[in-house]
């Protein structure tokens, strides 16, 4: 998805470009959230303490997900497209 978004950055069709970038943001955000939550779960209470590197990485993943709109924002944007139903 990241490669698709990178390749689509130069697309002349603005709607296609927005759709690809939103799709990548959704997928990457979901993956970041899943991996971060699983890492914290694996380490238990220590997973959120500053002594563990996983806590820092989870906070960073959360910040990355929120940058330029989180996955939920981009999902709403993706669904709001008029051709959403036609694409499936």
Mean pLDDT: 82
The figure for the number of domains is 1
* Helical/strand content category: mainly alpha
Q: How does the overall form come out from the CA principal axes?
A: elongated
Strand content: under 5%
Question: Number of DSSP helices?
Answer: 5
Q: Which bin fits the share of residues in helices?
A: over 70%
User: How many strands in all?
Assistant: 0
Q: Measured on Cα atoms, how large is the radius of gyration?
A: 16 Å
Topology pattern, helix = H, strand = E: HHHHH
Query: What composes the largest sheet?
Result: none
Low-pLDDT runs of 5+ residues are none
N-to-C terminal Cα separation, in Å?
Answer: 17 Å
Tell me about this structure.
This protein is mostly helical and 88 residues long. The chain has one domain. The chain contains five helices and no strands. Helix 2 runs antiparallel to helix 3 and helix 2 runs antiparallel to helix 4. The longest helix is centred in the first third of the chain and has 30 residues. The protein starts with a helix and ends with a helix.
